[in-house]
Design brief:
With 358 residues, this protein is an alpha+beta fold. The protein has helices spanning 2-13, 17-24, 28-36, 43-53, 81-102, 130-141, 152-157, 195-211, 221-233, 236-243, 252-262, 266-275, 281-294, 312-322, 328-335, 339-346; strands at residues 69-75, 162-166, 174-181, 184-190. The chain has 16 helices and four strands. Strands 1-3-4-2 form a four-stranded mixed sheet, with helices on both faces.
Length: 358
């Protein structure tokens, strides 16, 4: 157990064996023995290694062991294997803490819903336009109506999807990944991306779950999931209600305001307008050229759309504490906090002022 976690923590830090050895004053051969399970560090060396690898010492002995299966990355081609190793280690660490927490709850009080697909989804999809109705079906199944989805992460979590945010620095070369843990769907997104990109990634990965094994050979799965994401965020009836049935041109300010309302990029809204035949393909190409000229393909105007957040894990830690399934020490460990910091947070000492607790 220790050796496997030690290797994962070192790879997550981006340090070579020699670099880690130099950092803690040990030999590279000692590090190699730890990783191969041929030796165990002393208590003092364990503390040094924990500090150098930015993990708590308890991490190396956590009993929960899981694997993420069927990983599919939504990434840029230039992302390095070193960064992917960091992401994978971070995801496994967070997922392990998730399942350690869930295992503390009695079966009769499991706080996570089961993820289910609508039963009336088509068995075979042969045309990209059919995907719009599939996205509508998913929204109806989740009782979302046709209005903007205000909080995508909360929406996904409440429907049985595990969502993890990773803050590993990737220079914007990683958007997200999808996989399964113990048959439960998992979606990971970058916590550093703008909110509209996070939301599109979440919807894209949902598309993989919904469209899997339903696409004809002529349909490209990535393009299909992009189409699903756009239609899930901005349904056909909604985009026609907002823009009208037919338009000869669109105003940039109009697209900017709709982005703020629906949480989908200005470019994404324009794509939806073309897909729904509100604008012609020729005018769509004109808008994209204009966006490129303005530099909006890389950075759209105005403040970035607010990033998505996840609060469910922390809420469940406090629920477990309240139900006395765990004590303060375990709660702090699960949250990756020192006990002193946890005490302050628990007392709502957010600004340094003590607040009376219940």
């Amino acid at each position: 157990m220790f050796a496997e976690r030690f290797v994962r923590a070192r790879k997550a830090s981006g340090l070579s064996m020699q670099a880690l050895a130099d950092k803690v004053g040990l030999s590279a051969n000692a590090i190699k023995k730890y990783e191969h399970g041929d030796a165990m560090p002393s208590s003092s060396n364990l503390m040094k290694l924990s500090k150098a690898l930015n993990v708590r010492s308890e991490y190396f002995f956590r009993p929960t062991k899981i694997e993420v299966e069927g990983i599919e990355y939504r990434k840029r081609a230039s992302i390095s294997q070193k960064i992917l190793n960091k992401i994978r280690s971070d995801v496994l660490d967070q997922a392990e803490r998730w399942y350690e927490l869930l295992d503390l709850f009695p079966d009769s009080a499991k706080p996570i819903a089961n993820f289910e697909l609508p039963q009336d989804l088509p068995e075979s999809i042969t045309d990209y336009e059919e995907i719009d109705s599939v996205a509508d079906c998913m929204r109806e199944h989740w009782q979302l109506g046709l209005n903007p989805v205000q909080d995508m992460v909360d929406t996904f979590e409440s429907r049985g999807l595990m969502v993890i945010l990773t803050y590993i620095e990737t220079d914007k070369k990683f958007d997200g990944l999808a996989g399964t843990i113990k048959e439960q769907p998992l979606i990971v997104i970058s916590g550093s991306q703008a909110g509209d990109r996070q939301r599109f990634t979440l919807a894209h990965e949902l598309g993989h779950l919904v469209l899997r094994d339903r696409l004809a050979n002529s349909i490209d799965e990535e393009k299909a999931c992009d189409r699903f994401a756009g239609a899930f965020l901005l349904p056909t009836s909604a985009v026609k209600r907002e823009l009208g049935e037919k338009r000869s041109q669109l105003e940039s300010r109009e697209l900017y305001m709709l982005k703020g309302e629906y949480g989908i990029s200005m470019a994404g809204i324009t794509i939806r307008a073309q897909q729904c035949r509100i604008i012609t393909s020729g005018y769509y190409a004109h808008v994209m050229r204009y966006f490129s000229k303005q530099g909006w393909r890389k950075q759209e105007p105005g403040d970035a759309y607010p990033s998505e957040q996840t609060f469910l894990f922390k809420q469940l830690v406090y629920r477990a504490l309240s139900e006395e399934y765990i004590g303060e020490s375990k709660a702090a460990e699960l949250l990756g906090m020192s006990l002193a910091s946890f005490h302050k947070e628990r007392k709502l000492e957010v600004t340094g002022d003590s607040t009376t607790t219940c």
